[in-house]
Structures are given as structure tokens and as C-alpha cells.
Amino acid sequence: MTGAEALRQGARRLAAAGVPGAADDARLLLAHILDVPRHRLTGALAAPLSSEMLRRFDAVIAARAERQPVSQILGRRAFWKHEFRVTRDTLDPRPETETLVEAALAEPFSSVLDLGTGTGAILISLLAERPGVRGTGTDISAKALEVAKENAYKINVSANFLESDWFMAITETFDLIVSNPPYIALDEMGDLVPEVQKWEPRQALTDEADGLTAYRAIAAGAPAHLSPGGRLMVEIGPTQGAAVAGLMRAAGLIDVRILPDLDGRDRVVCARNAP
Which residues hold substrate (predicted)? Predict the structure, then answer.
């Protein structure tokens, strides 16, 4: 069987399973198996595939048909300017989170704390842009922290990683605190696509309540862990802007703003510690 024939069969199988973008996903997965860049795949399609290549391609198509995210199958996801290792223990970095990175980089900072770091994508992206900045990432998942450490090593940034429930293990203050916490309300979990609902770590998605539990803890603890005038920036769900902004004002933070993502949806709430 040639690569082209295998690709057609794989795409049909994914489409039958209800996978959105079946043809594109099949191309990505075949390029992965053949270890060629996606833009060079066409040149490899006329050649026959070995039985081992066919077996491996069948396995990844089967995984995708079960709605496992492509990033988990490949083991990596592009975010900002780098590729990050991802596993089932980490939330998949998403393009809309780059809104938070871009906004954080708009002002200088000499230290940054990333609460619930997951893959470390936010923290590592910031540190790669600001050599010499002191960075710390926390997570309650030891397995996620191992992934973050690997990503930091691969991207050649230095960071400290701590197992911590929000601020519990934090004793220092920072110029910048960032977070993409679990913000999906329990009653919204059933609406998620299978790729998220079945495959991503539940504790990184929902607080099993109203979706605001993490923001209450972060807003309450931020003033004591921010330098005077330091910034707090959190990603939110598109309907949570007013509620999260209210939590920050109630905690005594100032200059509270809600920033949109590229689709115009509320995506980041930022505030500043009192001088």
C-alpha cells in the first residue's frame, strides 16, 4: 500500500468516527509516522509503506478515532515560539492562551510566578523572552511538574518548579503572577468535546463547582505575593470577566482590566497590586 492509499483510508476512518478535520489530522499523523515535515509529505505519498509503517499508522489512526487529541498522540504542541511536550497529565496549551503571554510581555518584570503551570508553556515562554528573569511554576500534579521540567530543559530556560496548591508553598514575592486555572463549571463539563472531556486531566479543567474557586484563592493570595505595583494576570472563560474582575477588586487590587483574545472574547483579566 502506498502512502497515498493509506492516507485516504485513514482519513475515511477518522471521518466515520466523527473526527473534525479528519483529512488534516490524517496527514499530520502520517507525516509523524514517516518522520517528515508535513509540507514534504506529498513527495513521500507515492512510495509503498513497510508493514511496520502501516502498523504504526493504523495505531495512531485508531487512537485519533477514539478522539485522543493529535497533540497527545504526537507528544507535542506548538505554543508561542516553541514546541512543548504534552501528556495526559497536562492541559494542552491553546492558542488563546497566547493572549496572556503577549499581555504579560507588554511591561518589564524581573520575577514571575505561574500558578498551575501544567506543561510550563506560559512560564517558559515568558522566561525565554526575558533572559535573567527569576521564574517559578507551581502545580498540584507531580506528573505535570515533571513534564514542565522537561520542557524547560529542552527550551533552555532556568525555572524553579514546586508542588503546591496555589500559594501554599510560596514564600517569595514576584513582579508578575500569571495563571490559567481550571475554570470550567461542573455543569458545563458535559458540553466539552470528547478530546477534552475524555483525555485531558479533569483537575486542570474544572473545580467541580462554579468555575470560580481558583480565582477566589488566587485573588485573595495575590496581594501578599506581589511586589508593590506588581501585576496579576489570569486566563478566564469568556463569560467570567466581570466575576473575576470583581474578585480582584474585592481583594484590593487596582487597575483591573479585561482583555479580549483574537476572536474578541473576554480572555484575560489583569490587575495591579497597590504601590
Answer: 180-183
